[in-house]
């Protein structure tokens, strides 16, 4: 379904502020169509498998770990870590690699960042391939972290809220914020693993035990949970619904855009992709009838690869 992976022909660590250094890599065809992959989370980091969404004979594939994520340093740092810092970082990488315009690919939080970047720099984007649309509206966060997904995954939800005292459960994200920033190491890592496990337990139509086990890894859980929570407590550092505002969409209406959405995605429910389609009717929306949230689900992978194949010669 996806392409065979090729090893990076270039990689490095790029200092983007006094605090942050980003890991980046370039693979595929040195002279191919440039595409930047924006990973999810925030805080999730990249995986070598992410290269597989692109034909390595046609694409120059750029992956990087966002601030505090993956191989970027310092791990799990929340300082100078906002949506708009990341948008600046994307531009810094584009300029470093001497790319004029590139294709932009992102799923989940990666779709949020793709939209934010494209709306900030519409003249630099050749196409958008997005999956599991997430725009950080309060209603979206409430569905997954307060009252929505809990009705579908009651056993996983019970584990998720277990670290939170009952008196604080009226605002789960805020309650987790206190624990994820505790000075006590054990409190922090217990909360990080519980936060991460909730997402890994709900991300596929058929849950992958290996993915759930990933949430038990200290370094991954710490970065993933702390950075996600930091962004969510701060509403993504944007006004509610900003990415769906008509004046923002008008900036990107000319950009060829494909959206792939799992029908049974409970992390980023289809209502957000549908809202984007209503304000941005020019885009192509595919709703996959037998998929949840993960880009690794067969129906979602297939359509994402078809989209990148379509845009390869643009």
Label the CATH architecture of the largest domain: 3-Layer(aba) Sandwich
Number of helices: 11
Question: From N to C, what is the helix and strand string?
Answer: EEEEHEHEHHHHHHHEHEH
Q: How many strands?
A: 8
Rg measurement, Å: 18 Å
CATH top level assignment of the largest domain: Alpha Beta
Helix content: 25-40%
Query: Order of strands in the sheet with the most strands?
Result: 1-2-4-3-5-6-7-8
Task: Assign the CATH superfamily of the largest domain.
Answer: Alpha/Beta hydrolase fold, catalytic domain
- Tell me, rounded to a whole number, the average pLDDT: 97
Number of folding domains?
2
Distance between the termini: 22 Å
Show unreliable segments.
none
Q: Proportion of β residues?
A: 15-25%
Structural class: alpha/beta
CATH topology name of the largest domain, in short, is Rossmann fold
Shape category: globular
Largest sheet: 8 strands, mixed
Protein described:
Belongs to the peptidase S33 family. The active site is at residues 108, 265, 293. The chain is built from eleven helices and eight strands. The chain has 314 residues and is α/β, with parallel strands linked by helices. The protein folds into two domains: 10-137 and 238-312, Rossmann fold, CATH 3.40.50.1820; 139-236, no CATH class. α1 (83-96) crosses α2 (109-120), α5 (172-180) packs across α8 (218-233) and α6 crosses α8 (218-233). The longest helix has 16 residues, at 185-200. The chain is globular, with a radius of gyration of 18 Å. The model has no long low-confidence stretch (mean pLDDT 97).
């Amino acid at each position: 379904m996806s392409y065979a992976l090729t090893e990076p022909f270039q990689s490095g660590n790029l200092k983007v502020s006094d605090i942050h250094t980003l890991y980046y890599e370039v693979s595929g065809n040195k002279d191919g169509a440039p595409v930047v992959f924006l990973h999810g989370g925030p805080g999730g980091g990249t995986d070598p498998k992410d290269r597989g969404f692109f034909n390595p004979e046609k694409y120059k594939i750029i992956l990087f770990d966002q601030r505090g994520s993956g191989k970027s340093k310092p791990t799990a740092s929340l300082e100078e870590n906002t949506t708009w810092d990341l948008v600046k970082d994307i531009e810094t990488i584009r300029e470093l690699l001497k790319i004029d315009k590139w294709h932009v690919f992102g799923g989940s939080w990666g779709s949020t960042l793709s939209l934010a970047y494209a709306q900030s720099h519409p003249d630099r984007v050749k196409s958008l391939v997005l999956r599991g649309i997430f725009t950080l509206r309060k209603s979206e966060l409430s569905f997954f972290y307060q009252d929505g997904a809990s009705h579908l995954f009651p056993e996983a939800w019970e584990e998720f809220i277990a670290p939170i005292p009952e008196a604080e459960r009226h605002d789960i994200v805020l309650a987790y914020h206190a624990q994820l920033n505790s000075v006590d190491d054990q409190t922090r890592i217990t909360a990080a693993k519980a936060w991460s496990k909730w997402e890994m337990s709900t991300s596929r139509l058929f849950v992958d035990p290996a993915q759930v086990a990933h949430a038990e890894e200290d370094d991954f859980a710490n970065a993933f949970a702390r950075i996600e929570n930091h962004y969510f407590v701060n509403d993504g550092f944007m006004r509610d619904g900003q990415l769906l505002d008509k004046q923002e969409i008008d900036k990107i209406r000319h950009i060829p855009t494909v959206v792939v959405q799992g029908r049974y995605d409970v992390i980023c429910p289809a209502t957000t992709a549908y809202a984007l389609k209503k304000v941005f009717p020019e885009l192509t929306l595919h709703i996959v009838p037998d998929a949840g949230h993960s880009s690794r689900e067969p129906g979602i992978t297939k359509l994402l690869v078809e989209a990148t194949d379509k845009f390869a010669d643009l």
